[in-house]
Every structure is written in structure tokens, then in C-alpha cells.
Amino acid sequence: MLKTGLYFHIPFCKQACSYCNFHFSTQLKNMDDLVSALCIETEQRSTDNLIGSIYFGGGTPSLLKEKHWLEIQNSINKYFPNQALDEFTIEVNPEDITVTNLKTWNTIGVTRLSLGIQSLNDAELVWMNRVHNSEQASNSIKMAQENGFKNISIDLIYGGPLKTDDAWENELTWAFKQNIQHISAYALTIEPKTRLEYEISKGKSPELQDERMVSQFNILQTEMLKNGWDSYEISNYSLPGFNAIHNARYWDRMPYIGIGPGAHSFNGREIRRWNVANNARYIECLNIGRKFWEDEELNANNILNEYIMTAIRTSKGIDLHKINSFDSRWSVANQKIIESFITKELLLKREESLILTNEGKLVSDYITSELMIVG
Ligand code: SF4
């Protein structure tokens, strides 16, 4: 039976990181009301579908208190009774790792922690406006492990102006020694309406340098390979058997139900839905029974383009059989451009799949846009 993923968006953060444009609020006083609204939506979205993974993202789910976790967990068990979980992940920040929180997460059945470490350099963490420091970062991993968590992922960010190539290599060497199972490594990007964008535009922060990004991406690939880690998606790396299960639903076009402000849902075929990304409006709508989401039905071109955008990022690549089942004209129409990417060693063809080379990963947005159907 096809499994569905369940996602909860917890839209609160203690403070805004300089590079982040996710949906969150630093007004923590609305947390009780938001959790009550999440539970109302959980009831509304009730289904007998088999739930295969639960993921709490944000924002900062680790800001939730024990009473919130228990309230939400009761709702999940009541309204999504058919569960065969392969994974239950929560995103947590190092400063929230306490024995009390770890016990609560164990009690409700969390199997995997995704820790927002980002950097081990205190000056860089301050520059990013993160709450934690490097000592808290390392201690949080140890504490989680001592309290029974055996599947830990950490997030790291490379390419920033304060990170030298040597420092990046040292961070990766440190990470490999932490007995963790998964690393998500993201190239720093300048997102619109962030403090980083503002500071760079005013000359208060140095510009990002492409050469540094490329060099640190190459270090990442070399170190992962050398240490036996699987580069299974452009930003995701794991030890054998520890690929992210819930997140793979997004790349594999599998169904998921997203609950909370700004959360997205997908029925695994052609319907996408997204909730209003505003905490006050979300709470109000749930309380007075007003519609709080929009949805769209994807056409054949949308489906094909979405498949290209996600599949190309994975080590499985674009499956030509699959893409032909969406539109048999695609391979013929793109034959020349595909051959030119293969000649330039940006793509390689393995059996019936097109896979990005490391060079190709550096220009993946360009390759993706060239392969997508326009119109
Ligand atoms: S990076 Fe994470 S902790 Fe920082 S503002 Fe964004 S969601 Fe919040």
C-alpha cells in the first residue's frame, strides 16, 4: 500500500538568521493558539491513508514545549490512525537540546533529529545571526546520542565570506568524527528580503564569491567520496542505509500532507495545495472555519517539468522510461541539447538515466531550465 508523508510546519524562531527567507515569526506568544489551530487542521485532514513518515520542520520545531508535542501527537494518533512509520524526524536547533526535550521527543516516538549546526566558527555563527555557538553545536550532538538518538542529520552551510576552504575541510573532518548518519550541506545563497541581501546591497557585508562556492563544493564532493558517504542528492549525503525517507517524497513525487501555515501538500499525482503563510490569518481561519489554502491542478507540462527539476538533483537522475511515459516527444525534442551536455561532461547517461556529473551539479539550474518544457 502506498504510504503518505505527514509534514507539520512550526513557524516560530527565536531570531531571524541573516540568510533565511522561510516562513516563521519571532512572536512566540502565539504558540499556544497556533498549536490549537494545527490540531484543528489535523482533524480536518484526517484520513485512513497509511502514514509512512512524519516530519516537523520550520521555523524551529524544537521551540515547542512538552504540552504542545503531546497535544499534536494525540491529534496525529486520533486522526491518522493508520501508521507504519519508517521515519519520524524533527528539525531542532542546538540551543534547544536539553535532557528534558530529548526525553519528550523520545516519548512521542521521534526516530531522527535534523540539527541546524550550520557552522563551527563562532564569528560566522554571529554573522549568520544564529542563536547558538560552536560549543553548543558539538555538545548538542553528544547529548542527543547519549539520550538514545541513533539517526542524526546535521545541516552545514558553505561558501560564505567568512569560511575559508581550510575551515570548510576541517568542518567536514569534524563532522565525520561525530558518529552522525546524515549531512545536508547547502551553498549559501542570497535570498530576497533577507538581512543578508540588505547588508550586501549596502556594502555592510562582503559579496559572495563564485570561486569560493565552487572550490568548497568540490571539497565537499571529494571528502564525501573519500569517507564513504553517498551523495544521493545535490545537498544531501548519507552513510549506507540512512537516506532521508520523508524528504525523498518531495524528490520522488510521492504523496504528502502538509499541516500548518505555509505548508504544502501533494496527492502524488496532479493536485498541489498550499496553506496561507501567515500565522495570524492561519489561526483566525482555522478558528472561524474559513478557507486557508489554495490549490492547483498540474497539467502534463507542469508534471514533466517538476519531475525534471527534482529528479535531476538526485543520484538516480532522470529516468528516460519514466519521462517518456509523461511525454514520449521529450527525448526526441531534447536529443541535441542532451548530447551537448554529455559531450561537455555535464551529464552522463547510465543505462536509461541522465545523471549530473560534479561539473553539471555546479550549473544544475541552467541544465534544468534547458531541459524543461516551455509553455
Ligand atoms: S534558518 Fe532556521 S532557525 Fe534560522 S530563521 Fe530560518 S527557519 Fe529560523
Architecture overview:
With 375 residues, the chain is α/β, with parallel strands linked by helices. It has 2 domains: 4-251, TIM Barrel; 300-371, Arc Repressor Mutant, subunit A (Orthogonal Bundle). The protein has 16 helices and 15 strands. It has helices at residues 31-44, 66-79, 99-107, 122-127, 134-146, 165-176, 195-201, 210-226, 245-251, 279-288, 300-311, 320-326, 330-333, 335-343, 358-362, 364-371; strands at 4-10, 51-58, 83-92, 112-118, 152-158, 182-187, 230-233, 236-238, 256-259, 264-266, 271-275, 293-297, 318-319, 347-350, 353-356. Strand 3 (83-92), helix 3 (99-107) and strand 4 form a beta-alpha-beta unit. Helix 1 crosses helix 10. The chain starts with a strand and ends with a helix. The structure holds iron/sulfur cluster. Iron/sulfur cluster (SF4) binds at residues 13, 16-17, 20, 22, 24, 58-60, 93, 116.
List the helices and strands and how they pair.
Blueprint: E1 4-10, H1 31-44, E2 51-58, H2 66-79, E3 83-92, H3 99-107, E4 112-118, H4 122-127, H5 134-146, E5 152-158, H6 165-176, E6 182-187, H7 195-201, H8 210-226, E7 230-233, E8 236-238, H9 245-251, E9 256-259, E10 264-266, E11 271-275, H10 279-288, E12 293-297, H11 300-311, E13 318-319, H12 320-326, H13 330-333, H14 335-343, E14 347-350, E15 353-356, H15 358-362, H16 364-371
Parallel strand pairs: 1-2, 1-9, 2-3, 3-4, 4-5, 5-6
Antiparallel strand pairs: 6-8, 7-8, 10-11, 11-12, 13-15, 14-15
Iron/sulfur cluster (SF4) binds at residues 13, 16-17, 20, 22, 24, 58-60, 93, 116.
